Amino acid sequence: MKIYTFNKNIKLFFVVVTFLFMLYILGRSLWNVYYHVIPPSNYLLGIISPFEMLVLAYLSITNWSIFRIRCFLTQTQICYVGVIKTTKIYLEDIVGYRITDHIEIEYKKGAIHLPNLENEYEIAEWLVTTFPDLAINEFLEEVQHITATGANFAHYYHATNIAIFINYISIILAIVTVFDPNFGIIDVSAIVILPLISIAALKVYNGFLYILDTKYTYKHIGYTIGFLIFINIFKVQAMYELIKPNNFNLISAIIAIFLLIFLLWRNKEFQHLKTNSFFPIVGIYIMLFCYSNLSLTYINCFFDTSHEEIHYVKILNKFPNPSNYSIELGAWEKVLQPERTTISPKLYKQLVSKSHATLRYKKGMLGWGWYTITASNKY
What we know:
This protein is of the alpha+beta class. It folds into three domains: 2-137, PH-domain like, CATH 2.30.29; 149-302, no CATH class; 309-375. Helices cover 50% and strands 18% of the residues. The chain is built from ten helices and 13 strands. It has helices at residues 8-34, 50-68, 120-130, 134-148, 150-179, 185-204, 222-239, 248-264, 278-302, 345-350, and strands spanning 2-5, 70-73, 77-81, 86-90, 94-99, 103-107, 110-114, 241-242, 309-319, 326-329, 339-342, 356-362, 370-375. A six-stranded antiparallel beta sheet has the order 8-13-12-9-10-11. A hairpin with a 4-residue loop joins strand 3 (77-81) and strand 4 (86-90). The longest helix is centred in the middle third of the chain and has 30 residues, at 150-179.
C-alpha cells in the first residue's frame, strides 16, 4: 500500500502564513495594551475584528483540510480521504482519468479530484499505463462537435475572444484602482458593469467559458474578476464612510445569493456537484457578496447628486495603530454616538486630537447617507 499526503511545501506555506497572522494579532494586541489604545467596539474580546476572525477561520479550516487529505493506493482499490468524507474506489470501477492542473479519476458512481499531493506524478504514471485518458477522448469529441456545426465553432471562437477581453479589461481596471486616486465615471461604471457582463457571458457561452476551470487558461475569467472586486473593496472603504443601515449586509447577501443561483443554474462547469466543489462555490459566493457590497456603495455614493452638508465633529481620540490608522469621532446629527473610523495615514497626520474634523455629508442616491472626512481649521 502506498500513501500520498498533501504537498509538504503547500503545508509549510499555510502553516507559516497562519503563524505570522496570529503573531500579527498578538503583536497588535500588545501594542494596544502598551500604548493604551482602545480597540473598536466590534472587536471580539478587544483583540480581533470580525474580518480577521473570518481570515483566521479560513486559515484554520485550510490547515485542518490539507493535513487531513490523503490518498491510499493498493492493488485492488483507491481510498481517498477528503475534507468531509472518505471515498473508496475499486479498480474495476474506474472509467478513466483526466490530468489538467490536478488529477481527476472518474468511476462508475462519480469522480474524485486529487489535490496537490506529494509525489503525485507516481499516480499520474500509473493512471497513464492502466486507464484511458478521458480528456483526449473528450477533446476529440469536442473538435468533431465544433467542426460539425458552424454555430458551435463560432461560439468557441467568440468565447475565447470574450475571455481575453474580460481578463485584460479587469487587469487594466485593477491597475487604475490602485494607482489613480481620482475615479472617473467611466472607471466606476466599468467596475460595476463588467462583472454583470461576465455573468451574462458565462450563461451565453456555457460550456465554452469557465469561472475557475484552468484547463484552458485563456477561457476562464473568475480569477481576474475576483481580483478586481477585492481590490475595489479596499478602495471603496477608503473613499466613503457609509452610514450603513442594519440590513445593508443582508441586502448584499441576498443579491449575491440570487446572482449565485443564476450563475450556477445549468452551468456545465459545476454540472456534477461533488464534495470538493463546496469550497470553490463558497469562494464564488464571497466574491459575489463583495461585488454586491461595493456596487451598492459605488452607486449610492459616486452617483449621488444630493446637496452636500458640512458638519464639524470633534475628534475624541486618535489611535496610532501602524496597521490601521483610525480616529474616534464624537456624536453628531447623523450619528448619535461616538464612532471609530479608519482613515488614511496622510489624513491621520493632518488631524489633531481633541480638535475638529470636517465631515461632508450627502444623503446618497439609494438613500444611505455617507460622508467624507477632511482636516478642519476649527479647533
